Amino acid sequence: GRQALYKEGLFVGYRFYRKADVKPLFPFGHGMTYTTFDLEGLSVDKDTLPVKDRLTIRVNIRNTGRRSGKETIQIYVAKPVSAVPRPGAELKAYQKIALEKGEERAVEFTLAHADFAIYSPAKKTFIVEEGDYTIEAGFSSTDIRTCKTVKVEGERLQETTSPYHDVDASFSPSDDDFARLLGHPLPKERPLRPFDENSILAELRASLIGRLLYRKVAKQLQKAIGSGEASRKMMERIAQEMPYRNLRTMSAGAFSQKTSETLLLLMNRRFLRALKRLFRRD
Question: What number is the average pLDDT over the span 250-270?
Fold first, then answer.
């Protein structure tokens, strides 16, 4: 349809994997190197972060391998106990560090009080929830080497009940769940017609001409990519998601603007206007 609901909310990518305790093969932040590194000694300049203040984080990185190399230190923030739904952890800072073999260096990061904020649909603004936060340092979203708990001053939030609190691998919120998260009813989906140049071929298949166009495009794409069930499914998906406007650019001039506009009028059942467009001189 013309409306896509991002019902997963904040739980996208590593934010979902951390919350649902899913272990991906290549986690967010993962990288390869010719040597090995270790992180230790994470410290903060204050145990309690006041409103509008800043938190300085220091951590030691050491090249434990036999050659020089580079590694990216990633700082994540997690709030294990929260009154509102939030990701398992969120990336807040990172630095890429180059070290010779055996070299060790202290690296410093700074987080503002606002870096701990989360958006509140009820208040329509970002707010910082008071309580304990975990500062994590590691080399990916799952490769956490050292951490520290910090108390952050902020607002006391009223606890909510929502499926977004308990997220697991089968997480699939309903439209009603999403509406409650947003704090207002979901917008009504736009009807397919009138079609326009941004309509995708999957939508145009509601008309006879659209179905014929889709079959032609899918066949041409299949011919270009080769045989195989996986290739066929991929090409079908590409054809379905293709905007109507792309047909002109892909046809190298064979599918003219006049033809495009005429067919669009026919698919929108504006037959008289389609005839006028067909016989009008450009």
Answer: 90
